[in-house]
């Protein structure tokens, strides 16, 4: 278990430095009315704390801390290092990043510092130490929030030099590096460490093969680009560590975190979580994000440390940065917050407490709107939730989750799969993982999102869709798990490469071939308008597409075959007995129904059961506390749905009422009950 708060924090980002002092007092009164017991401060105030290189000025932050302390609010104290002060960018241009196109940025925006700039590293340590020295002993400072939403990348000369040092440490010799990156391809052999350049638009990027979140998604040498991703994640993590250690010199007690972003691609969050006392994250679904996707991200954030997490940010009403920033409908923020708690959230925090008067976030939702009153729908909903959390939140804090299903998630795999050129540009890692998660979500089967080095023996079923990269030791671990009776589900584009993105020779799925009992001789790629037919052994038919493995059985039995094309009649989905366990191999992208059929079979065989016996379209999620199992029953569907019978006669903790058989839950309704 990670850090545990005494009270469930309810609050969020608060920027009083943007407001005249008379507003602060009004804020404190409004926070009380809303049941808000905490505030996250100092997230973007570096330029106010250090107006020039020589001058630090804490009088304003002193006053903010003092105001909140006197109001009895718990403080999440941020370190302000996520946006550079103008003087620093002017005096030391090296602190600004160089982008994928090779352009050195000027002063502007945020999340803009080069992680390998010695100047930036010096200043963050100095500032953070001063903050911790000054505020670390304040009992109301219950948590440190380092930087903000770390991410992005830099391609400057300092990063290039640091990359070479990182590689030297990893590979030792230039020969080992040449081999790992397979540099004889296109004669890119390197004879000196200084010949290594960063993989961007000026070097190995393939701009004409689609573009992604990180400039260009495709690269001539995935080995180089994956190492660059690892290096950049490590470089930024070093920044986090520098700040954390500066804080630790003065404050040994309060947990240290930084706010993560779910399935954000750029950082290896499993590695990061090892350095964090508690995981926190920002949940910003858009108007059309499926609720299962939100649930999966919560589970992933819980999985990072296998412990409850903080919800550092969500909007009480709308965002400003999405294309369509629809309002949260009445009840939606409440149910979204309870869903967070249901999946392991131990805090509920907003961005932001007061809506800003200017800047690009002036249309971002807030607890206190521009009208400045408590007479708004949003405020009333925040206050209702505040009352509920205050009443029952604390009994839930720290409670765990029990899952018999694990889904593997791996950032190395994420990078490698999406850097790879071919066979199908539509193949996206998180999409494929989500399709599996969605099945378990629909069935109310509890899932842990787990790293590839997790202890698999805790699980009865482990799913590893598109496990493209199988690193050293992984196949052996999976074999031991299955041999002992575990059920393993994998499929197309799995077992293909090693940690350097070089192919495991000898036929796909490489090191998983023995386990799966199949050989994938070829992989067909289908365009979005193309499909194949899938015929299950019971005769039922369905569609499949995107990728079709052409399989040979090597001990496995066929569960479904292809219905068309030159490989019609060959196996598409298989099951293999391995030791005491089973391995399912799904050789193509099945429809939702098709995947359900296969996973029903796999779950049935593995004895997987949902958190309640009754089938329902409601989301039912469970946390296990000392007082018993707490069940969260939530309606995310458009239609009213009946309460499952198991809750009849039980007390709904939210309303205090005894629930009745057959009572209906409207859209966004929530019930919480404890079953022994
Ligand atoms: C992110 C940031 C916040 C704010 C919100 C707006 O999560 O961390 O500072 O910009 O987005 O949604
Ligand atoms: Zn840099």
Structure notes:
The longest helix is centred in the middle third of the chain and has 27 residues, at 222-248. The protein folds into 4 domains: 9-154 and 233-395, Glycosidases (TIM Barrel, Alpha-Beta Barrel); 157-228, no CATH class; 410-416 and 458-606, Rossmann fold, CATH 3.40.50; 619-675, Golgi alpha-mannosidase II (Immunoglobulin-like), CATH 2.60.40.1180. The chain is globular, with a radius of gyration of 26 Å. The relative contact order is 0.09. A hairpin with a 2-residue loop joins strand 18 (571-578) and strand 19 (581-586). Helices cover 30% and strands 18% of the residues. It has 17 helices and 25 strands. Helix 5 packs parallel to helix 8 (222-248) and helix 10 crosses helix 14 (429-442). The strands form 5 sheets. Strands 10, 11, 12, 13, 14, 15, 16, 17, 18, 19 and 20 form an 11-stranded mixed sheet that branches. It has a 5-stranded parallel sheet with strand order 1-9-8-7-6, with helices on one face. It is an alpha/beta fold and 676 residues long. The protein binds alpha-D-galactopyranose and zinc ion. Residues 97, 114, 116, 154, 156, 158-159 line the site of zinc ion. Alpha-D-galactopyranose is lined by residues 148-149, 282, 284, 313, 319, 321, 351, 361, 364.
């Amino acid at each position: 278990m990670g850090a545990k708060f005494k009270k469930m924090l309810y609050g969020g980002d608060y920027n009083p430095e943007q407001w005249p002092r008379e507003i602060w007092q009004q804020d404190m009164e409004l926070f009380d009315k809303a049941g808000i017991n905490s505030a996250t401060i100092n997230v973007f105030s570096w330029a106010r704390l250090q107006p020039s290189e020589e001058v630090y000025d804490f009088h304003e932050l002193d006053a903010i801390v003092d105001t909140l302390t006197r109001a009895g609010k718990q403080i999440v104290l941020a370190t302000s290092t996520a946006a550079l002060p103008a003087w620093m960018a002017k005096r030391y241009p090296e602190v600004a990043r160089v982008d994928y196109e090779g352009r050195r940025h000027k002063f502007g925006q945020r999340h803009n510092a080069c992680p390998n700039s010695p100047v930036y590293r010096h200043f963050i340590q100095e500032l953070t130490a001063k903050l911790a020295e000054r505020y670390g002993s304040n009992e109301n400072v219950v948590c440190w929030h380092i930087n903000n939403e770390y991410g992005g990348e830099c391609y400057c000369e300092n990063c290039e030099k640091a990359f070479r040092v990182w590689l030297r440490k990893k590979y030792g010799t230039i020969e080992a590096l040449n081999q790992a990156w397979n540099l004889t391809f296109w004669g890119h052999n390197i004879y000196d460490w200084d010949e290594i350049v960063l993989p961007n638009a000026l070097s190995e990027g393939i701009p004409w093969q689609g573009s992604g979140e990180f400039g260009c998604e495709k690269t001539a040498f995935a080995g180089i680009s994956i190492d660059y991703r690892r290096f950049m994640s490590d470089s930024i993590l070093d920044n986090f560590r520098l700040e954390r250690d500066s804080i630790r010199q003065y404050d040994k007690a309060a947990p240290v975190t930084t706010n993560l972003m779910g399935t954000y691609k750029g950082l290896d969050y499993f590695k990061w979580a090892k350095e964090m006392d508690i995981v926190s994250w920002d949940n910003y679904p858009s108007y059309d994000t499926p609720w299962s996707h939100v649930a999966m991200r919560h589970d992933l954030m819980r999985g990072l440390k296998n412990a409850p997490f903080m919800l550092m940010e969500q909007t009480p009403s709308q965002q400003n940065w999405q294309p369509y920033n629809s309002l949260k409908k009445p009840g939606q923020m409440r149910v979204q917050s309870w869903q967070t708690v249901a999946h392991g959230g131990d805090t509920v925090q907003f961005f932001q407490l007061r809506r800003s008067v200017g800047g690009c976030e002036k249309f971002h939702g807030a607890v206190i709107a521009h009208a400045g009153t408590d007479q708004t729908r949003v405020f009333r909903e925040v206050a209702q939730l505040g009352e509920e959390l205050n009443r029952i939140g604390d009994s839930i804090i720290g409670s765990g989750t029990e899952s018999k299903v694990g889904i593997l998630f791996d950032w190395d795999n994420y990078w490698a799969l999406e850097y790879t050129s071919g066979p199908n540009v539509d193949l996206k890692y998180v999409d494929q993982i989500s399709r599996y998660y969605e099945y378990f979500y629909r069935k109310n089967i509890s899932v842990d999102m787990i790293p590839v080095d997790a202890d698999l023996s805790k699980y009865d079923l482990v799913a590893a869709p598109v496990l493209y990269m199988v690193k050293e030791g992984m196949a052996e671990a999976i074999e031991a798990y299955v041999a002992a009776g575990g059920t393993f589900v994998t499929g197309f584009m799995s077992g293909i490469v090693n940690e350097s993105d070089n192919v495991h020779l000898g036929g796909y799925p490489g090191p998983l071939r023995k386990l799966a009992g199949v050989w994938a001789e070829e992989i067909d790629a289908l365009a979005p308008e193309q499909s194949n037919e899938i015929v299950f052994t019971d005769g039922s038919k369905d569609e499949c597409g995107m990728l079709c493995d052409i399989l040979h059985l090597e001990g496995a039995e066929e569960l479904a075959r292809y219905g068309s094309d030159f490989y019609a009649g060959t196996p598409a989905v298989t099951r293999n007995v391995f030791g005491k366990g089973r391995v399912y191999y799904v050789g193509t992208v099945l429809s939702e129904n098709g995947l359900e059929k296969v996973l029903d079979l796999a779950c049935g065989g593995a004895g997987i059961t949902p958190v309640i016996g009754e089938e329902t379209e409601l989301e039912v999620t469970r946390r296990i506390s000392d007082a018993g199992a707490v069940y969260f029953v939530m309606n995310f569907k458009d239609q009213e749905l009946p309460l499952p019978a198991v809750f009849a006669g039980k007390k709904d903790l939210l309303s205090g009422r005894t629930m009745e058989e057959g009572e209906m839950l409207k859209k966004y309704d929530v019930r919480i009950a404890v079953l022994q």
